[in-house]
Amino acid sequence: MYRWLLLILLLLLAGLQYRLWFGEANLRQVWQLEEQILQQQVENQQLAERNQRLEAEVQDLKRGLGALEERARSEMGMVRKGETFFQLIEPEPEQPRP
Question: Where is this protein chiefly located (predicted)?
Answer without folding.
Answer: membrane
